[in-house]
Amino acid sequence: MSLKVEDLEDQTNYRLIHAIPYNELVNFVIDYLRRKTGLMVFFWALNIFFLLVALSFRVHISGYFALKSIFLHSILGLVVFPLLCIPVHELLHVIPFLMIGARRIRIGMDLRQYIFYVTAHRHVISPREFRFVALVPFSLISIALITMIILLPGLWKWSLSLLLFVHTTMCAGDFAMLNFYHVNKTRKIYSWDDADDKKAYFYEEL
Fold this sequence. Notes:
The chain is α+β, with helices and mostly antiparallel strands. Helix content is 60%, strand content 16%. The protein has one domain (5-205). Helix 2 crosses helix 7 and helix 4 (67-99) crosses helix 6.
């Protein structure tokens, strides 16, 4: 049976360890991006690898296409496609939320912090469920882009490899939260969000 918010408020079984307002999420994310773990080494190494892949395509195509075309595809890969990718990424968070039984799903943004988010109002999430929700957009979009980079010709390899790099950096918030669970892997931590008050709660099972 799924836990409810009221279950977590039972102080004999659970203890509140964090209550984070959404307007302080960036500080929380930066803290866990800086924590040196195997997961963070993997994330930053992947970013560097995808950047090197993109640069290798740039070197390879430099002599074959007009500078104007290369510039156009650079703008596509660095600006246009990433902006179009944002709603797709957030939708791909919604789907796994629905799959784990969440229904009151909200999509929001805070342009002052440059963040977009999907949350399930007052739905308790286990560590395993959180990992599933967090990884689905990164995994599916990365697989789709790598496939297109392999199959499509010429400058599309350049623009899409740029998008692959930019999208991976855009997943920093997801990986920071995954790192929070990784750092606390010896503890059973449940979370829920109050989308009305814009606050995230994390409880440890005693």
